[in-house]
Amino acid sequence: MGLGKRFLYAMPVMILLFITSIAMAGDYPDIGPLPERKAPDSKKAELGKMLFFDARVSGDAALSCASCHNSEQGFTTRMPLSDAYPGSKHWRNASTLLNVVYKGKAYGSDGRLDDLDDMMRDMITDSMNMNMDMQIMQERFKQDEKIAALTHDAYKETGWGKGGMGTSQRGEMTHYVARNAIGQFLETLTSKNVPFDKGNLSPNAKKGRELFEGKAGCIQCHNGPYFSDVKPHNTGVPENPEVFKDPQRHFTYVAYMMFMGVDNRMNWRRDVGYYTVSKDRKDVGKFITPTLRELKYTAPYMHNGIFSTLDEVIEFYNQGGGEDRPGMKDAAMKPLGLTAGEKEALKEFLLNLSGDPITVEMPKGVKVEYQPIPKWKEVKN
Amino acid sequence: MKNKSKVKSMPLKALIKGQKSKLVKKFFILFIAFMLIAAAGVVYAADAGKSRPLMPLPSNPPIPTDNPSGTNVYPSKMDKKQELGYLLFFDPKVSGDGSISCADCHDPKQGWGFADPISRGYPGTVHWRNSQTAVNSGYLNKIFWEGNTFSLEAQAPAAATGGVAGNGSPDMMESRVRFTPEYVQRFKEIFGVEWPNMDHVWDAMAAFERYLSQPDTPFDKFMKGNKNALSAKAQKGMELFKGKANCAACHNGAMLTDEKFYDLGVADAPEFEESGLQQVTVRYQFYAKGSAEEVYRTYKHDPGIYFTQKRLEDRGKFRTAPLRYLKYTAPYMHNGTLFTLDEVIDFYNNGGGVDRWGNKTKILKPLNLSKDEKEALKEFLLSTSGEEIRLPVPKVPDYAPMADWQPKK
Q1: What percent of chain B has pLDDT over 90?
Q2: For B175, phi and psi rounded to 5 degrees?
Q3: Span A282-286, mean pLDDT?
Q4: Same domain for A216 and A340?
Q5: Which terminus of chain B, N or C, has fewer Cβ atoms within 10 Å?
Q6: CA–CA separation, A150 vs A166, rounded Å?
Q7: SS3 assignment, position A113
Q8: Which backbone phi and psi does B280 adopt, to 5 degrees?
Q9: What are the structural domains of chain B?
Q10: Residue B37 to chain A, least CA–CA distance (Å)
Q11: With a cut of 0.85, is the ipTM above it?
């Protein structure tokens, strides 16, 4: 191999190293307006909206998606720790669904699934969420004349290759169709009229932006148009004592760890976060960076709702985050030395990442009962 | 390779050279064993087509070696494992949403079954078959209407996790039990484990169900020689049962079931046509039990044990129901379509129901029973039930936080 050829091979590696070094020195994906997405199919989204509010999506028909992703409360709830399926209580804050379609990977605050359809599947089937057998769910929706008609109208052109029994017939409700329709509805839950996106920032908010990208260092993790690197970080958020004080929350967390195959699950007295996914001890206490968009509507904050106001959150970062064992916390977390004015400016900028309130009214005709199918013995199932 | 063949050939050499007498002895034992098997085969062949005799129940159900418990049955005192099972049987922690327990579909006040034709299901659902009594279930070899489960230890999780039954998830149910200090203590004492696990939950429940046995009914007493235990009428009924009415062709042995599978032509449950919620469950069953698309699309009747092997000749067949404790377990049949014993006797007197699948058993023929004969038969049938088994609903233990619940790094 000649020297020239060797150089040729080495070139890309050198370029890559150069780019990496720039990135490490502080070049992060630019914050900016959210890119346009393909508009959702309106019929499918309309069906998805019906299903989003339909409690028959849960095992005992007690909860709908909207129970924990409340359309009046920023598609999360104002409770620090979320409700869960009856007979259990959640140990984390419900994540907002606003702009969730932009996340693209690492769904859930521990980032356990990279596909939104998979995440919806688990939300429906997990014992602490909906505890639903999706085969039953499918048959429930098929029993509802109105949903069956909407499904036929929205999906008659689409033949599905997966989803189980009944997929050979176009326009028929299957559990895959149900998730697809809910996914189309989620596409409608995106920011509107955000001052930041419109370049409509007050001087103080502009100063906040400079701090965000500079002195305060928020940009290190909260970057890109979604304001998140969608990666796991340990910022030392304090544990929420309610999780362990309440046996129902604690055993729900233990059940989740069992489901995820986490070792030593009876003895953890902290939320191990991304460790449930990676099983690597250095990942204990890491959580996926949440988006900052629409945060005006999504208090309380952090994976366990431990902070009820933005001021508390800013002060938390100003002090360099919380505490953890040596070497566990992200190296980016350092005391910031922000003045009172700077904190105010930062807060103003953050609030300008929220647009018009996004609320959705519960559609009419969502039922919890079932009518028998007329001439049942004569028609096909 | 060489070494291996050497090792292999050594015992054979030893046998030929030094242990001829031992070899002969071995062949002799084998020969005897073979003859015994052959003889058994001849006896079995001769027995085919004949039913087993009626028998009294043994004083307790067989206790599996891998789940030992006391041999005591109701109303004597429970042993510790049975007592733990008693608590768990009534504890709604062992279900999906913590709202129903085993005892909701196997209610002591409803004959340890459920008095609707079709059992209630998990909240938001309905079941699709009649709930069977837990009493004497420890004597059965085949459980469920499809007879597809072979131990109480296997029946409990199937019911507790089934979508239209308990809908529980083992991870959640196990965690709930682990956060109940009284259970932790009891499991430690009985099973020697630091933390309860679900297998032990099923074991304890099964031990409790074996306690729900009734081996001392008038029928059992009569069979053990007490000729006064049955009235003359009931004794006449017993003769009809074995003879003219031919019930014993299938309802035989100590549990009054041969545990084989027959299509009787039982009518469809009207709920299938009348209830939307029921139709959801029926389609779900066709789907979840893995039948072909055609079955899912076109079946309107419960095809019974067809699901276990998907053989067309099995459609409409169910495991013969045991006839014990039936005084308390109306309505009858797999879908509860017959409300009283009189209706059941009339059903058989008419030669059973409709031959929907072409599988209806030839055993069923019109019986031409007189009114008195029907009455006698009924009196005999009632003699297989003793006093009602009633146990109070126990107070189930509460959750508590872990002793060291404080968060730590």
Answers
A1: 85
A2: -65, -40
A3: 98
A4: yes
A5: N
A6: 17
A7: strand
A8: -60, -50
A9: 80-211 (1.10.760.10), 218-382 (1.10.760.10)
A10: 48
A11: yes
